[in-house]
Structure formats: structure tokens, C-alpha cells
Amino acid sequence: MDILFATNNPHKAEEAAKLLGPAFHILLPSSLGLEGDIPETHDTIAENSAEKALFIWKKFGRICFSDDTGLEIDALGGAPGVYSARYAGESKNPADNRRKVLGQLDGVPFEKRTARFRCAVTLVEPVTEGQSGFKTTVFEGTCEGHIALAESEGVQGFGYDSIFIPNGMECTMAEVSLEVKNELSHRGKAMRELAKYLSAKK
Ligand code: IMP
Question: Angle at CA 190, nearest 5°, toward 186 and 194?
């Protein structure tokens, strides 16, 4: 089954492909000729997730899903949260974002560096009954952990992975394989629910 993923992020696409398995073939908007950013203009992860999926649904009119993720750091009052992508500026540079977080947490001891990734996946699918012609369903996942005292040298993953230590692990998410990350990550949890939902419909 072909399913469109409302993202330009190849790392998210790789993780999602593994999580959905071979029964699903993920297409990206870029492969269908859509260039440029997918809008995310709201103040909550749930709303941005819905906005991204509905934007792609309106463009292509076929089954699609989105993923919006934020990193919440307790010592920063929940920041960067929904603003995780552009935390250090509009260039959305991941290294700058990580540096900003580590700078703001300078002097904060490990036990007070609690944080979590929060992810909302929105599925939009066509329906034949009813007026609107489509249905949205949301799947959520979180992953609790700590912000590391310094960036790790791990090169797996992306974004904030090299400064995030999931609970129960001794290293950052950038130091484990895709399979291990998917087992415990926010995205893994949300996407497994999506996979279960889609498989039940087949
Ligand atoms: P968005 O969901 O694409 O808006 O991502 C928000 C921000 O969180 C971006 O800076 C991403 O790089 C980062 N991010 C999203 N998912 C992950 C993840 O699984 N690990 C680490 N960083 C992530």
C-alpha cells in the first residue's frame, strides 16, 4: 500500500519506513513534485501535526500522515517544545539548536535535566460516507529522558538525538542503531499505533 508522508525530513522517512514495514510504501511529497516547506504555523504539536497532514491531503487527495515532534525540557519551562525546529533561529540549524539548549542548561545538574520528546502523528484518509470526504486520526508517543551534560559523538539519528539520553539507557539516541531508537522513541510508539490501525483496516 502506498502512503504519503507529509515531511521533507529523510531521517523521519527512514524511521517511519522501518516502523511501518514492507507492507507499506512511503512516498514523500518531493517525489510527487512538491517543493518547499510544509506549513507548521500553530502553537501546539497536535495542531501543527494536523496542519501538515491536511496541507498534503488538500494537495494530493490521497491517504497521508504527518509527524510533528517537540523536545520539552523541564528546567526550561517546557521549551523548546513546539518551537524545537527553529529554537536558535529561522535557519532551523540542528547544531545551533543543540548548542543553545546546552548553553541554557549550563550548570544545571544531570538529575534536573529531565526532558521528553513528544510526537503527534496525524493520519488523513479518504472516506466514502459522510460529507467531508476524509477522516483524521491522531497517534501520540512520548519518550522520557535527560539532556546530556555535553553533546555525544554519536552520528546516528538527527536533530536533538546527540544530546538526549532516554531513560534506561546510558548513552544518547545518536549512539544507538535505528532499530534500538525505534523501539523506545516517541516516533516508534506513535507509528506502531498507526501501523496497527492501518493493518486492522486491510
Ligand atoms: P519537526 O517535527 O520536524 O517540526 O521537528 C522539530 C524539531 O525536533 C527539529 O529540530 C527536529 O530536528 C527535531 N526532532 C524531531 N524528531 C526528532 C527525533 O526523533 N530526534 C531528535 N530530534 C528530533
Answer: 160
